[in-house]
Design brief:
- The chain is mainly α.
- Helices cover 69% and strands 0% of the residues.
- It contains two helices and no strands.
């Protein structure tokens, strides 16, 4: 049981949690913005 706790502590260190959160936020922004049509392209026509 002690080995499992030490492995989880290494995997979920503060830096890894921050990196995971940043990646999830970037993926969420990409998913949300790809559904919207870019209206600025058609402004000149």
């Amino acid at each position: 049981m002690n080995i499992v706790k030490s492995v989880l502590r290494v995997l979920f260190s503060r830096e890894n949690v921050y990196a995971l959160l940043i990646c999830m936020i970037i993926m969420l922004v990409i998913i949300v913005t790809t559904g919207a049509t870019p209206q600025w392209i058609y402004q000149g026509f």
